[in-house]
Amino acid sequence: MMAMYARVLTALAFCVLSLATTARAQPANETPRFLALDLSGGVLPVIQGREDEETDAWDLKGWSLDGTVRFLPWLGAVGSFARTSDFELPASHLSAGMRASTKFAYGGNWLASRLFAHALVGYVTPRGGPEAPDGGAELVLGGGLDVFAFLRLQLDYIGSSVDDVDSYRAFVGGVVPLCFSRCREDDGLIVGGRDDRP
User: Fold this and answer.
1) Which one of 14, 25, 55, 90 is separated from 123 by 20 to 30 angstroms, measured CA to CA?
2) Which domain covers residue 42, as residue numbers?
3) Which CATH number goes with the domain that contains 104?
4) pLDDT digits (tens, 9 = 90+) for 28-43
């Protein structure tokens, strides 16, 4: 498990460095292209009854990691990996697609918020040993809200060719919106060139 996390962190670091290098390498005599990266991760909290307790309790039933390369301020390509567990069929989900988002609306830097929506296609792999069914294709439609600049609330609908895969998931997590080139204040954290045009 630790080896997998190390590979994920290494890949994310490589992606950030590559995008930063690409942004800085654009010719000075050309109009720079917009380039940004959103990194996010979250958990799937649910309320369920416990046999040994009189009241319901919070529990975690999965997690998700994704990255969005935005080549326009409002549009980008996203890749996502998620795992769900303890439902009718625990599964791993690998998907990719497009995500559209609004600009950050500011009420002060720490009150920034934006809406986003995405459409992804991918592959779901059931987990559960030799008796688990074969994997299959899936369609993920969803969206959510980034609030306080770094908090992400996300709800997805999942249509899959695999029986018993959950048809929805709700994640709560964090997002780091990085902007590398042609950046304005409402594009996220500016780590590259600003767009100073009126």
Assistant:
1) 14
2) 2-190
3) 2.40.160
4) 445 568 999 999 999 9
Indicate the average pLDDT of the chain. 78
Which tens digit of pLDDT belongs to each residue from 100-155?
999 888 655 567 899 999 999 999 988 876 677 888 999 999 999 998 778 999 99
Upper half-sphere CA count for residue 147 (Cβ side, 13 Å): 6
Classify the phi-psi angles of 49: left when phi > 0, otherwise alpha if psi is within -120 to 50, otherwise beta: beta
* Cα separation, 89 vs 127, whole angstroms: 7
- Residue 195 domain flag: no
User: What letters, b where the CB count within 10 A reaches 16 and e where it falls short, cover 43-80?
Assistant: ebeeeeeeeeeeeeeeeebbbbbbbbebeebeebebbb
Q: How many domains does the chain have?
A: 1
Is residue 198 in some structural domain? no
HEC string of the chain equals: CHHHHHHHHHHHHHHHHHHHHHHHCCCCCCCCCCEEEEEEEEEEEEEECCCCCCCCEEEEEEEEEEEEEEEECCEEEEEEEEEECCCCCCEEEEEEEEEEECCCECCCHHHCEEEEEEEEEEEEEECCCCCCCCCEEEEEEEEEEEECCCEEEEEEEEEECCCCCCCEEEEEEEEEEEEEECECHHHCEECCCECCCC
